[in-house]
Every structure is written in structure tokens, then in C-alpha cells.
Design a protein that fits this description.
By secondary structure, the protein is an all-beta fold. The chain has no helices and 28 strands. The chain is globular.
Length: about 325
């Protein structure tokens, strides 16, 4: 049985081989592959970082999807799936986060809702209806709010965690891809759904403060945990060109652009804050030095096409 053996671990969901794959963060060695449901998408970790929850979205990436209704539960010590949460009539689970109390929040696109799930009993504790399909989630740094993006609908829904109710809507010029909150909790970064732009909002006032032009249409903005950089993965679909675009924070001055012949999905910063890993549609997981804006290691492979989302476990 493959195990992580207490090593600092890079985790990545891989849609092409329906797995969660673990790599030794220090050496890049593959530590284990946990088979899960078809086309796993997003990931969140339990509060104690011993368990991963994986959304089993459906047959497609988005659009003409035949939605699933399951969440895989992976034991990270043994890298095996120990449970599959059946959401019954709730379908299209996608975005996942773990709140400060350890509860699991998951979007269910077909039901226009976010579910709150107990991480021990795997029971649904609450349904928060948001009135339109919901795809991605981000949590405020104090844990009090959850921001929800809706792809084709021009607003961000803000959910109050304590009351588990919709508290406000932040208007957008168009729909949004992923959303992220800056490490200091002051800014909300919103990737535009179909224009090469990232919108920056003040979290306190929920007002737009800046819009950043990009090389291509964004997928996901990622502020690094130390607050030094904003990373945005983008795709020029007609040209089949992918980009990782780096900005200095907090002024958001352009720093570097790295081009790929593949679509970049999620990115994640290493614990030291000096590098990021990026998931590419061709299965590669390149490591990029943030200061130099260059690829320093392109040897890591997810084992099949379409890796998507990352998590890091530190022991």
C-alpha cells in the first residue's frame, strides 16, 4: 500500500486518470495514487490535514456536463479512498473549502447552492441557496465570509459563515472565474469570465478599486501567502497558448509572463514562498521561481492529462 510516510506532500487532482496523486515535496518522488470518482476537480483538506475531500464534478469540465453527486474522501496517510459522500439530489459538486471550524463547504452547480458538510459524519448540515449556478469559492482571512463566483452571472455572492446566509452581492461587469482573497484580507481578486482582466475589490467596502489587463482570459488568480506576488493563469484558446502571469503585489506591477503550449489550471506556492507549481493540461507540473519568473524544474509529471487542483500538506 502506498503511503505518504509523514513527508511534506504536494497533492494534485488528475482528471485524466481519476485520481489524487501525491508527490514528495522535497524530491518530487511519487508517493501514492488514490483512485477516486470520474474527473475529480477541486480539493480541500480537513482541519488536521489528514484527509482530503475531492469534488467529483461530472463528465465534463463545464457546460454540457452530466453532473455527478459525490465527494471522495481520501486518507492521506495511506493514500486510499476511505469513503465516498453521496449528495443524493445535489449535483455538480465543484468548489471546496474548509472553514475555520473544520466544516466542508462545497458548491453544487445544478442546485444553485452551497452545502455545508460535517467532516466527521459526512452529513449535509446546511444548504445555502444562491439562486444561480455557483462554481468557485474563496474564504476571507478571518473566516467570517465566503465569496462565491458564478461563471456567467455578473456578481459575486457573499455568504456569512456564522449565519450561513447570503449577506450581499458584489456587482461585476461580467461573470467570473475563480476568486481569491489577499493574505492580509483587504483585497478580493476576481478573474473575468471571458475578458483578459482581473478585477480587484476592497473587501471591507466591496467596491472595485482596480482592473488589471492580462495577456489572455484568466482562469485563476493566486496571491502568494507571503503577499509578495499575484499569480494569474490564463489561456488564449484560439491560439492554444497558456500563460502564467506574475505581478508584484501590492502595487500589481507586471513582473513576468511564462508561456506554455498547454492550458494552465491551478497554481500553488511552495511553503518557502519562493516558487509555485502549475498544473498544465498536458500533465506537466512545472516549478517556477517567482523572483526570476523562470521555470526551474519541468520534470514532474501527474501521470496523465488534465491535472487540475493542488494542496500541500506539511508535517
Amino acid at each position: 500500500m502506498a503511503t505518504t510516510n509523514g513527508k511534506d506532500t504536494l497533492l494534485v487532482t488528475v482528471k485524466g486518470n481519476t485520481s489524487l496523486t501525491a508527490f514528495d515535496l522535497a524530491t518530487g518522488a511519487k508517493l501514492g495514487v488514490a483512485t477516486t470518482g470520474t474527473k475529480p476537480h477541486e480539493i480541500t483538506l480537513s482541519k488536521d490535514q489528514k484527509t482530503a475531500f475531492i469534488s467529483i464534478y461530472g463528465t465534463a469540465d463545464y457546460g454540457r456536463n452530466q453532473p455527478n453527486n459525490e465527494i471522495g474522501v481520501i486518507d492521506l496517510d495511506t493514500m486510499t479512498e476511505r469513503h465516498r459522500i453521496n449528495l443524493d439530489l445535489y449535483r455538480g459538486p465543484h468548489g471546496l473549502i474548509t472553514d475555520h471550524d473544520g466544516n466542508i463547504w462545497v458548491t453544487v452547480e445544478e442546485n444553485q447552492s452551497v452545502l455545508v458538510i460535517d467532516p466527521e459524519t459526512f452529513q449535509i448540515e446546511q444548504t445555502v441557496w444562491l439562486q444561480v449556478p455557483v462554481h468557485f469559492l474563496a474564504q476571507s482571512t478571518d473566516g467570517a465570509k465566503i465569496y462565491c463566483s458564478h461563471k456567467e452571472y455578473p456578481f459575486i455572492s457573499v455568504v456569512d459563515v456564522a449565519s450561513r446566509t447570503l449577506s450581499s452581492k458584489i456587482p461585476l461587469p461580467r461573470g467570473a472565474q475563480a476568486v481569491r482573497v489577499s493574505p492580509d484580507g483587504t483585497r478580493l481578486y476576481v478573474g473575468d469570465f471571458n475578458m483578459p482582466l482581473v478585477h480587484v475589490f476592497d473587501c471591507a467596502s466591496e467596491e472595485l478599486i482596480q482592473t488589471i489587463p492580462l495577456q489572455a482570459v484568466p482562469g485563476w488568480p493566486y496571491p502568494t501567502p507571503d503577499g509578495r506576488f499575484l499569480v494569474v493563469t490564463t489561456l488564449d484558446e484560439p491560439a492554444n497558448k497558456g500563460y502564467v502571469e506574475l505581478f508584484f503585489a501590492p502595487d500589481l506591477v507586471p513582473h513576468a509572463i511564462i508561456e506554455f503550449e498547454a492550458e494552465p489550471f491551478h497554481a500553488i506556492a511552495t511553503p518557502d514562498g519562493d516558487h509555485i507549481y502549475v498544473a498544465l493540461s498536458d500533465g506537466r507540473l512545472p516549478k517556477i521561481n517567482l523572483e526570476t519568473g523562470t521555470i526551474v524544474d519541468d520534470s514532474l509529471q501527474a501521470g496523465d492529462v488534465m491535472p487540475e487542483a493542488f494542496a500541500i500538506v506539511q508535517h
